[in-house]
Amino acid sequence: MQASQSATEDAAALAQYKSLGLTKDPRAITAGEYKIDPHHTSVIAKLAHMDLSRYSLRFDSLSGGFLFDPSRTMAINLEISIAPQSVDTGDQAFDKKIAKRYFRIDQYPKITFSSSAVKIAGDHISVDGILDFHGVKKPLTLNVVYRGFAHGRMGFSGEATFKRSEFGVGEWAPLEADEVTLLIETEFVKT
Questions:
Q1: How far apart are CA 130 and CA 142, in angstroms?
Q2: Which of 44, 52, 116, 176 has the fewest beta carbons closer than 10 A?
């Protein structure tokens, strides 16, 4: 009985996927304001630990959005905010230690990124902006891949790299690498 139930669920999922009308054509996107879907967004920071592994930190609380203008085929005013106290390593005691000592959440309760320019080449997008981390504002470029649009929802994958010491966060170096890579998977929903 479980095999037939699973086959039925698989067929229903396939039918639902086909009915989405997923498109990668940016001209199909409707104009308006889009907000992050926190249930379908992840931000992972990776950095080398003793050069033995690329350790991962996930942030579980973030918000933000942008305005989309189809006549210009671009996002304007992209604003993203991450709550550093939401850091998740899988070890709650370690999370609290990182949040307090590394991110200094009492003094810096959020990390933000604000766009200043967007360049589009096919499905690849370069988003230049300002990263405000640990009270220091510096330019950062997000390299983004547009994943598509369906029913008022669009998806992106992004990546950026920066040196944490440039933001005044040099603790535990070189035991913990200076270079940090951000990996972003996100969906935005039209409001």
A1: 10
A2: 52
Q: What are phi and psi of 100, to 5 degrees?
A: -80, -50
* Dihedral sign for Cα atoms in the order 56, 156, 84, 190: negative
- Per residue in 85-131, pLDDT (tens digit) is 999 999 999 999 999 999 999 999 999 999 999 888 877 899 999 99
Q: What are the structural domains, with CATH classification, of the chain? A: 2-190 (2.40.128.110)
Q: pLDDT of 8-50, one tens digit each?
A: 888 888 888 888 889 988 778 889 999 999 999 999 999 999 9
DSSP collapsed to 3 states, the chain:
CHHHHHHHHHHHHHHHHHHCCCECCHHHCCCEEEEECHHHCEEEEEEEECCCEEEEEEECCEEEEEEEECCCCEEEEEEEEECHHHEECCCHHHHHHHHHHHCCCCCCCCEEEEEEEEEEECCEEEEEEEEEECCEEEEEEEEEEEEEEECCEEEEEEEEEEEHHHHCCCCCCCCECCEEEEEEEEEEEEC
